[in-house]
Q: What sequence folds into this?
């Protein structure tokens, strides 16, 4: 019911809300946020890098939840929803890696490092790329393929806690958590801009997920209609 | 490239990535919707005959 209500908002509420939030985010990130003393202006990439990462976690969480629901209910709409959200997750993971790379070059001196957090994020990208390749290379109404891919997506989702904990468990170039704790290490002004940015990008991700789901549902419907059409033709002949 | 250059590149990649994906989604939804409508009409007409 809640999912249906969110889905109904995909053209009326989500686009203007996401648009306003994104314009606000850009203004706050580039104009209002104070310049960091050590890294300088390039630190402002935090306001797109971190929200992109959180948006990808959000999208893959939707994929995992929809995969569980598919396994429980065997309704292909949940399989379609899982696929629609996984594509959005991949887009935001790619944006996370690219913005991180552009932030890393002036700070670390290199575009890429085999740092635990970056490596586990790359693994997340590869896991869900494989999920989509496997799911798209088989028939959309194949129950066996949908079941295997759902189980694979749930297992693949376990990489997200690993990414989150990687900065605590291993030596890494990434900082320890600066927001997700009782006394955030960020100054209040930067914290506010970060929270607005996260909200804006999550809204965009939610909108993209609803559109992605719509695309997958339409593909399912098209497949059913083609099957009906074929059945009609063979009946007449 | 200067620090501001990397900042600009990062924001450009972020915005361009999102806009491109949005356009691809819109085009794909429109194409699929057209195909679905066309097939539904064809099946309806076929049933009437």
A:
């Amino acid at each position: 019911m809640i999912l249906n209500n969110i889905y109904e908002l995909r053209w009326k509420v989500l686009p203007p809300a996401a648009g306003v939030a994104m314009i606000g985010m850009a203004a706050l990130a580039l104009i209002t946020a104070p310049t960091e003393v050590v890294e300088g202006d390039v630190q402002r990439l935090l306001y797109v890098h971190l929200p992109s990462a959180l948006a990808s976690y959000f999208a893959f969480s939707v994929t995992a939840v929809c995969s569980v629901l598919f396994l429980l209910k065997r309704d292909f709409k949940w399989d379609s929803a899982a696929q629609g959200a996984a594509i959005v997750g991949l887009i935001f993971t790619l944006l996370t890696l690219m913005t991180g790379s552009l932030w890393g070059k002036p700070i670390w001196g290199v575009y890429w490092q085999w740092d635990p957090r970056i490596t586990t994020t790359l693994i997340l990208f590869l896991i869900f790329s494989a999920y989509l390749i496997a799911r798209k290379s088989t028939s959309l109404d194949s129950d066996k393929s949908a079941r295997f891919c759902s189980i694979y997506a749930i297992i693949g989702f376990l990489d997200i806690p690993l990414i989150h904990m990687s900065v605590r468990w291993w030596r890494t170039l990434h900082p320890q958590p600066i927001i997700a704790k009782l006394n955030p290490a960020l100054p209040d002004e930067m914290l506010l801009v970060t929270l607005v940015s996260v909200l804006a990008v999550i809204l965009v991700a939610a909108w993209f997920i609803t559109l992605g789901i719509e695309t997958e549902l339409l593909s399912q419907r098209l497949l059913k209609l083609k099957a009906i059409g074929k059945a009609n033709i063979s009946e007449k002949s | 490239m200067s620090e501001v250059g990397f900042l600009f590149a990062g924001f450009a990649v972020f915005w361009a990535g999102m806009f491109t994906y949005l356009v691809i989604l819109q085009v794909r939804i429109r194409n699929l919707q057209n195909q679905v409508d066309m097939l539904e009409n064809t099946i309806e007409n076929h049933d009437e005959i």
